[in-house]
């Protein structure tokens, strides 16, 4: 079966990476500055937000500058043309390990921010306080996540000779195109691949479940907290929670298109490469959209913008 796969360098997606990368550099630098120097009312909680924003920023830099992924879907294959590959010869495989480790840490740091705010409220109300060992377990999981990602991807990768052998057997008409690529990897759909993907889905589902339960309990506790503290202190907690809700909303909106990538690959659509490229561009814009949303809906950022940006 012939697919509509373009093996040439797509300059449009590279240009999008560059524009998004430059925009992300400016917006995230401004966002980090505001969190450090203009959001002191949030006290130490702002450093949890800072950790999450920094990880989002690093992910953007990796995807738009260091990696620059070009998909070859509906094959489980892609190649990279970023600085790491062109200057240092880093393969797609190790670029993906770095990327998925960063994405996992993003979700973990966002979850940690919610848990910390939940516990700050819980300590005031003296209810639903988690034991300290829970936090040690969570920190340990954050530390080992990159190792888990590395192990998982190494299990599903086969040697380059085996990759070419599989292509020659099932897609001989594309063999010459793959042989011309320098920094690509081709993943074979086997039982180990299914096992690793299933583990990743379970891991993400668990994080989403904990996050959902935490958010629900935060709103329940906030309704009680309003009766126990001053209006000014309540506003401080409310602003912090609003910032988290804004960020989880933008995360869902930007990550959702990536779930479509799985559908496009499974269905083996003829134009899957173009559709997945659009999804990748939307995902790389995640942190920029996040900062813009904070300026629109997060009071400390909005107040700063109203002072210095004429409307």
UniProtKB/TrEMBL annotation:
Sorted alphabetically, the keyword list is: Membrane, Transmembrane, Transmembrane helix
Question: So where does this one cross the membrane?
Answer: 12-35, 47-72, 92-112, 133-156, 192-219, 240-267, 273-298
List, alphabetically, the InterPro entries matched.
Answer: 7TM_GPCR_serpentine_rcpt_Sri
Pfam families reported in the protein's UniProt record: 7TM_GPCR_Sri
Q: Does the keyword Cell membrane apply?
A: no
Q: Which residues form the signal peptide?
A: none
- Which SUPFAM superfamilies did the record assign? Family A G protein-coupled receptor-like (SSF81321)
Name the source's superkingdom: Eukaryota
Recorded hits in PANTHER family, A to Z, give: SERPENTINE RECEPTOR, CLASS I (PTHR45830:SF15)
Q: What is this protein called?
A: Serpentine Receptor, class I
